[in-house]
Amino acid sequence: MKTWFHSWRAAIRIARRDAWRSKGRSALVLAMIALPILGVSALDLTYRSSELSPAERVERGIGAADARFRDADVSGVPIYQDPAGETHTPVKDYDDEPWPSGPTDVTKAIPAGSTVLKDTVGSAKLTTAHGLLMTEVRELKASDPVARGIMTLLEGRFPEKTDEVMATSHFLEASGLSVGSTLSARNFDRPYRIVGSYELPDALNADQVNAVPGAFLAPYTKAVEKAGLPAPGTSVSYLVRSSGGFTWNSVKEINAKGVAVVSRAVMLDPPADSEVPLYQKDGWGNYDSSPAADAAELASLATVVGLAMLEICLLAGPAFAVGARRSRRQLGLVGANGGARSHIRAIVLSGGLVIGVAAAVTGTVLALILTLLLQPVLEDTMNQRFGAFDIRPLELLGIALLAVLTGLLAAIVPAVTASRQTVLASLTGRRGIRRSSRVLPLIGLTALVLGGAVALFGSMVSQQVTLVAAGSALAELGVVAMTPALVGLFGRTGRWLPLSPRLALRDAVRNRGRTAPAVAAVLAAVAGTVAVTTYMASREAQNRAEYEASLPYGVAAAFVQEEGGRDVPAVREAVQRNFPVDVRADVERIAVGKPGCPPWGGDPGCGRYEVLVPPANECPMYASGPGGSDPSEKYTPEQRRKMLTEDWRCKPSASSGMYISDGGLIIGDAKLLQVLGVDDPATVKALADGKIVSFNRALVDKKGAIGIKQITDIAAADKASEAGRPTPGKVSSLPAYQVPGEKKSYGVQALMTPATAKAAGLSTVPMGVYVSTDRLPDGEQRQKLDGDLAKLGSNVELHLEEGFVNEYGIILLSLAIFAGLVTIGAAGIATGLAQADAEADLKTLAAVGAPPRVRRTLSGFQCGVVAAMGVVLGSAAGLLPAVGLRLTEERDQIRFYEQNVAEGWSGDLTPPHVPIVVPWETLAGLLVAVPLGAALLAALVTRSRGALARRAAT
After folding, report:
1. Is 893:908 a contact under the CB 8 Å cutoff?
2. What pLDDT was estimated at residue 171?
3. Which of 73, 167, 248, 496 is most buried, judging by how many CB atoms fall within 10 Å of its CB?
4. Bridge partners, 573 (sequence order)
5. Is residue 135 classed as helix, strand or coil in its secondary structure?
6. By three-state DSSP, how is residue 749 classified?
7. What CA–CA distance (Å, rounded) separates 374 from 776?
8. What confidence category does residue 485 fall into, taking pLDDT thresholds of 50, 70 and 90?
9. Strand partners for 263
10. What is the β-pairing status of strands 555-560 and 182-185?
11. What is d(CA 827, CA 864) in angstroms, rounded to the nearest whole number?
12. Is 76 left (phi over 0), alpha (psi -120 to 50) or beta?
C-alpha cells in the first residue's frame, strides 16, 4: 500500500468483502440509495421517450403531407401565425371594430397541381352494445399514402366502401363492439360495418370512427335536420403535398388569405423569433420559456435533489457506522500493521463507494428493464405512444453518479469517526471518550435563526414564496446540525424514567454519533410531513369557511340542454330509479325557434330569449352604455364603494348561484319550491295563480311585472348589442310576485308554471329535474346512475349537494403513513447500531440476573427514544414553512382586498380570513402512535435471550 492507487484498491477489496459478508445491511443501504435512482432514471427514460422529435410530431399531425391547410375563421382577412400553426390572430387590430368572424374558401389558397386530401371531423351519438356514445366521426381516406402515420392500423383493414368504417380500439372497448360489428347513429338508420381497428398515436383514449369522405357526415346531417334538430358542427382541413414543400415565406403568403398552415418544412426548421411577425405583435410574444423561469426551475430541482440526498445520507450513515463498529477489530489490525488514519478512512469510504456503485448499477438497470416492460402501461397513462425508446447515456450517468456521491457522503462521518479510534481501543473493543463538537451546534443555531428570519421576511415583507422556502430549508438544516446538542438535552429527562427507558435514553445520549443522524433523518421526514399537513389543513379550514352550497343539502339536479331535451325523460327516470328520492320536481326551459334548438341559439331557425331588467333597476355601474363603454369609469372609487354598500341594485342577490338558464328563469311547479326549501304559502299561491315568482327584485318593474323578450334574429340582436342599442324582439310582460326577504334560491331567479308560459305564448322544452333525497346516495347508487346516464350518450349536467367535502383527507393520511415508515426505518437502523454497541451491557445485565425481557424492552425503548426525539423536533421544525406560506397568502389576499376597496370594486368591509390550523390529529399520530409502533416493532423482532459469554474487562 505504498501508492495511492494500491491503497485504494486494497481498501475497495476489503469494503467489497465486508459488504458481501453483511448481506442484510448492505442490501438495506443499497435499496435506500437505489430506489430513488430507479425512480429518477425511469422518469428520465419515460420523459425522453415521450418527448417527440419534430419529425415524429409532423408525421403524427400531417402524415406524409407537406402541410395542413385550415380556415382561420376570420372571414379571410390576413393573419399572423406561429411556426407550429397552433395560434393565429388577424394582422389588423380590431379594438374599436367588430371582430372578423366567418369562413373563407381554403381551396383557393392551395397551389395548383398539388395533391390534396380532405380531412373532415364531426360528431354523432353512435349506437353501442350498451346504448349510445357521443363519438368523434372523421372522414379521411386513411389508406391514401398522404395520410400515412396519422392513424395506426391495429386489426382488419382501412374502409373502402361508403358503408364501411373503422374505429379506434378505445371506442371498441367502451362500446362493447368489435371488428365485424355494425353501428349506426341516433336519428340515422343507415348501418355501417366495422372493418378495422386503429389508434391515434397522440390520443390513445380517443373515441373516434373513421369513414371514407362523404360516407357518413353529409347523410347524417340531412337526417338530423329532417328530425328537426340542429346539424352537428364540423371542421375541415386539407392535407396538401406539393413539390418543394412550404417554406416560412410561403406560409406567410398563404396567411394573407386568412388560412392557417402547419408546414413540414417549417416544423423541421423553424424560423427565429425575430422572423415571426406574430411574436412582434403586442401581447403575442413567445412565452414558452424564459431565463428566469428556467433558473427558478433548476433551483427548485436542485433543492429537491439536495434534500433527498440529505435524507438518504442521514438514513444510510448509521448503517455504515454499524459496519465500521463491527469491523473495528479489523480496522485496528490495519493500524497495527502500519496503516495510517487515511487508510482507515479509505476503507470505510470504500464501503460507501462500493454500495453507491452497486446501487447506481442496480437502479439504472432496473429502470431500463421496468420502463421497457411497462412501456404499454406508461403510454396508456400518458395517452400517447412513445416516439422511440430514447436512452440518454450522459443523463443516466449523471443520475448514477448521484448514487455514488450519496454513498460516499453517507460514509464520511463514520469514516472520520473510525479513523479517530486508537489502535488499542479498536483491538480491545473499548469505546473511549467521545466528545461532541461545540462548533456544530453554534453553526446550526446561526442557520436556524438566519433561516427563520429569511422565512419571516419573505412572508411578512417581500411576499416571495421562494424566500419562505429557502429560509425554511436553511432553518431545517440548522436544526439538523443542532441535533447532537438537542439529543443531549433530552437526556436530562432520564432521571424520571424506569430502568429500561432510562438505559435506552442514556445510551442514545452517550452515543450521539449514531443517534443524531437517525434523529435527523426522522426530523427531516416528519418536518416535511408536518409542513404539508399544516398548510393543507389551513387551506381546508379556509375552503370550508368560504364554501357556498349550490343546492340545499341532499338535493340533486340533472339538466340536459341539447337536442331540445330529448333525453330528459330518461334522465328523470334514471335519477328516480337510482337515488332515494323524496320529492321530485320536473323543470323545463323556454325555447325560441325549432324545438331542437340549443338554449343559446345560433343555429339556423333558432333564437334566444332575455329576461329584461328595467332601466330603473339596473345598477348604474353595470348599465350598458353607448358604444360598449364601461359606465363604471365615470364614478370615483368612493362613489362605487357607496353604491356597492348602500344601493340594493348593486348588491349581490340571494338568488345568485350556479348557472341554470338565461336569466335564471325556470318552468316548473310548486314541487320545485318545496325542493328548494321555500315554504311561504303566499309564494305557492302566487305561482298557482299564474304569476311569475321572482327571487330577484331587480327583475320586477314598477307595475309588478317581468318582461321576457324573444329574439329570433340573432345577427341583428348582436349588432344592436355591439352598438349599445336595445336588441329587437317580441316582449311578453307577465305579472310577478316578489318573494319577501332574501330567500336563497340557488341560481333560480324566476319561476313560472308551464300553463303560465303557454298562456304567454312561450314555447317550452324539457330541461331536467330537481330531487330532494331521504339520505345522501351512497357510492353504489351514484355509480349505477352514472352508468345509466352514460348509456344515453348525452351531456348530462349532474349536481348533488353533499356539503363541504374535504379533498385533502387521503393526502394527509398518506403523508402521515410515509413519515411513520421513514421514522420506523431510521429508528430501526439506530436500534441495530445501539444493539451492536450495547452487547457488552446486555451481557452484564444477564450476568447480574436481569430478566430476559429486559433485552427486548431495552431494544424497544432504544427504537422508541430515537423515533420520539425525531418526531418532536420534526414537528416543531415543520410548522415554520407552513406558517410562512400562510402568512404570505394572507398578505396577498389582504393586499388584493384593500386594492378592491380603495378602487371601489368591493363593498365588503370584512378583511379576508386566512386561518392557520395545526392538524392535531396528524401530530398526535406522529407524536404518540409512531414512536409507540416503532418501539413495539423493535421489541417484537428482538430475541429475549442472547448468548451468555464472558465480558471482557475494559
Report:
1. no
2. 93
3. 167
4. none
5. strand
6. coil
7. 40
8. confident
9. 67
10. unpaired
11. 7
12. left
Q: Is the dihedral of CA 818, 823, 824, 829 positive or negative?
A: positive
DSSP 86: S
Check if the beta carbon of residue 197 is closer than 8 Å to that of residue 179: yes
Give the model's confidence band at 232: pLDDT under 50 very low, under 70 low, under 90 confident, else very high.
Answer: confident
Q: Which one, of 586, 550, 594, lies nearest residue 568 by Cα?
A: 586
CB 379 within 8 A of CB 201: no
Q: Are strands 164-168 and 208-211 parallel, antiparallel or unpaired?
A: antiparallel
- Which residue type is seen at 595? P
> Number of C-alpha atoms within 13 angstroms, CB side, residue 378?
19
Calpha distance 112→120 (Å, rounded): 21
C-alpha pair distances (Å), 536 with each of 145, 463, 490, 808, 925: 55, 19, 31, 7, 17
Q: Helix, strand, or coil here: 2? A: coil
Which residues neighbour 457 within 8 Å (Cβ) at sequence distance 6 or greater? 467, 471
String of DSSP letters for 177-215: --TT-EEEETTEEEEEEEEEEEEBTTBTT--EEEE-TTS
- For the segment 914-941, what is each residue's pLDDT rounded down to a tens digit? 888 888 887 887 788 778 877 787 777 6
pLDDT at 805: 77
Give the whole-angstrom CA distance, residue 11 versus residue 23. Answer: 18
Nearest-5° Cα angle at 700, 695 to 705: 115
| Structural contact between residues 47 and 378, judged by C-beta atoms closer than 8 angstroms | no
Grid cell, residue 572, equals 328523470
Phi first, then psi: what are they for 660, rounded to 5°? -115, -55
C-alpha cell at 549: 352550497
Q: How far apart are CA 99 and CA 788, in angstroms?
A: 43
Average of per-residue pLDDT values in the chain: 80
Q: Phi, psi at residue 82, to the nearest 5°?
A: -85, 165
**pLDDT tens readout for residues 263-318:** 999 999 999 988 999 888 876 765 554 555 555 555 555 655 665 666 666 666 66
